[in-house]
Amino acid sequence: MIVVLKEKTEQSQLDNLITWLESMGLSIHASEGQNSRILGLIGDTSAVDIDLLKALEIVEDVKRIQEPYKNANRKFHPADSIIDVSGVKVGGGNFNIIAGPCSIETDEQICFVAQSVKDAGATMLRGGAFKPRTSPYSFQGLRDEGLKLLLKAKKATGLPVVTEIMDLSHIHLFEEVDVIQVGARNMQNFELLKEIGRLHKPVLLKRGLANTLQELLMSVEYIMAGGNNDVILCERGIRTFETATRNTLDISAIPMLKKMTHLPIFIDPSHAAGIASLVKPLSLAAVAAGADGLMIEVHNDPPHALCDGAQSLTPEAFKEVVETVNKIRPYACKY
Ligand code: PEP
Ligand code: MN
Fold first, then answer.
1. How far is the CA of 144 from the centre of ligand 2 (A)?
2. For residue 66, what pLDDT is reported?
3. Ligand 1 in reach of 271 Cβ (< 6 A)
């Protein structure tokens, strides 16, 4: 980190600043230019409050040289992380598809969809039991009953299951869940992230609707700082001025995140587009750009789905997407 000081700085003020910075365990390298004085801060600056420094009377500007995320940073961990999801390898050249309905609705529905997506090539099953809905009057999910049905489908198919947690108080219900999903709306629920960081269970962290990639990686840092390194990232579309699609899929998040982090990156084209016919083109784009996996919503009867029917594929359409994805996988970008 570099601190540029204002031209007229009293020595006593500078001494106070240096003493304060040194008390944080940093070494200070001061240099004098013709018109400015610069302090180079050497050591772990991740706990330094950059805004507080900038607000000091004698400080002109502060620049971070190193990213504030450490555990997720590719610089300190050049090799791709490979995450073991109950025997399924994720990342590091392994390609996976998570598929299933937006919400678990009935025993028949989840078991039928689970078997169909497995037959088509999905390697993990998704299904929401606790649903974050914009309206309190919309279907909120079957909650603990839904989790039981999802675990039944897991037993029947052998597919690891991915489902979303919305509140800390539900954590005890997720023991047999293979991957805990933290949804876009909870990406910055730091207390939830800290608690999940203490678990020994893979996490799928979705990017928030209006969050930068650095913010996503700082949220990852909350989980990894607690000792849980098994984090899968998921880009699911962000808010832009465009209204023709539900969100805007940020394809550049794939090559950027590949530079920034060693963790696997999935793309969710269903929530990005909000329109079933867009799921195939967006999936192909994501795979070509080098995503480690996809998360796709599939429903046995999309027009009658209790949640997100417009973006859900039928099992037949899903099978076709998987077949086409497999054709282009050999040409995908590698990092
Ligand atoms: C979901 O995957 O069911 C979901 C609600 O996604 P998101 O958090 O991306 O909106
Ligand atoms: Mn959904």
1. 18
2. 84
3. yes
Q: How far is the CA of 207 from the centre of ligand 2 (A)?
A: 14
The SS3 of residue 231 is strand
Give, to the nearest 10 degrees, the angle between helix 253-260 and helix 213-225.
40
Mean of per-residue pLDDT scores for the chain: 96
pLDDT band of 99, cuts 50, 70, 90: very high
The residue behind tokens 């997506």 is: 117
| Helix, strand, or coil (residue 208) | coil
Ligand 1 proximity of 202 Cβ (cutoff 6 Å): no
Please give the Cα distance from 160 to 112 (Å, whole number).
16
Tell me, letter by letter, the H, E, C secondary structure of 149-169: HHHHHHHHHCCCEEEEECCHH
Provide the token pair at 92: 């590091």
Q: Which helix (H) or strand (E) holds 126?
A: strand 124-126
